[in-house]
Amino acid sequence: MKVGIDMGATSAGTAATLDLEELLATRLLVQGNSGSGKSHLLRRLLEQSAPWVQQCVIDPEGDFVTLAEKFGHVVVDAARTEAELTRIAARIRQHRVSVVLNLEGLDVEQQMRAAAAFLGGLFDAERDYWYPVLVVVDEAQLFAPAVAGEVSDDARKLSLGAMTNLMCRGRKRGLAGVIATQRLAKLAKNVAAEASNFLMGRTFLDIDMARAADLLGMERRQAEMFRDLGRGHFVALGPAMSRRPLPITIGTVETAPRSSSPKLTPLPDAKEDASELIFTPGPEERRPIVRRPAPLPTPTPTADILAQLSRPKPQAEPAAEPQFPAIDEAEREALVESVLREILEDADASFRSDAVLYQDFLVRCRIRRVPGEPLTLPAFRRRFAVARAGVDQKTASGEAWQQVLAMSESVPDDIQGVFLLVAQAAITSAPCPSDAELARAYGSHSARRARRLLTYFEERGLLVLRTDFRGNRVAAFPDLGCETAPGDPNRPDALDEQLAAE
């Protein structure tokens, strides 16, 4: 179904129409300095497309919450845990509700973590709910910065990864990213490069004008035009609007933001007692407490100092007992292992992102009173991959398993669990895991992806695959001198059968 969204008028006076179905497939990037009309453009797009497509707005300043009054958007306050935001995002895709994620009141790092958890929930929704969604991210340079800033690396990586998934891999899941930024130079290139439609507004810096001209296919000498654009005037290019750079003027909107541009307001009439108004505290003001400096101590006489120095040295006081009891490392490791087993017993754990699982792990550790510093996210990924392989104590203490752990460091973090699962089957001479079991270890329902991972391991020289005369699969590890027993690749996952029986 072809739906044309009226964005305003072109320089020739004709209607500036945006093909909504093409936009869902090709994504949109909006650039403009503060005051150029980016938020007005996004509001026009949201209002015009609200009857046709589900919308999710990532709103760092709370300007788009007014859409709820007229268009029925649900406002989601981001002052929640990351796990809650992920579950809310999954239900949003299931019930196809348009929402505004209000990040107002959070600091930058909290905003990045909340947006990452919310976008992760949208991205990881089940395949049955992959309906088209217009995901609008205002001030995208906050969530996908080109360089590291004052926030922690962990928060930046989570947020940048979520934005990359939205713009690079979101199309197949029905997610159409619309991102707006004040400066292209501040936005990560791999996020900006995935957009095929562009609306470029007023900008003044040479580097931003040059990048805008390059994206629109214009010559560098034409870049000066971006300095002359007025508020609400943009240059459009892309399959959803125009195949050639097209100046347009954004039309009016039906709703208004909570904050607006500052307007000149006449000063009040001059008052004769203005100084008294300033220097006299009001009745509701509390008088500040004035702390007087302590008097200087009386200087010690020289004779007293010499007497103190001539005294015999006092005996050393016994060492104070530690304030906190010593941590029993064996007990701590046992508690960590039990928490990991609890997470693995959850049937949905395999299909959740590492960030969500890590937050669940930290909460469970606090509930269990696990002493010591919690595991970092990389350490958790490593331990969780080992725990997912299901290695018993005897196998884990063997030399072969230590060699397997060394070999697994050469593969990416997200597929280490799959490699360890196959290697554990080879060491114990168990049947080769089926495609369904490998897919669960990878966090996917696709058997084809599981087979592709085995092919990747074989290309890296880590294992050799063969098929016996009955069609069963065998994985041999030349470096370990062992191989799995024949296993049916089409065998269903044992956990799925257990859940079905229950």
From TrEMBL:
It holds the Pfam family DUF87. InterPro entries: AAA+_ATPase, ATPase_Atu1862_pred, HerA-like, HerA_central, P-loop_NTPase. It comes from the Bacteria. This is AAA+ ATPase domain-containing protein. Residues 253-272, 483-502 are annotated as: Disordered. Gene3D superfamilies: P-loop containing nucleotide triphosphate hydrolases. Residues 24-300 form the AAA+ ATPase domain. PANTHER family: HELICASE MJ1565-RELATED.
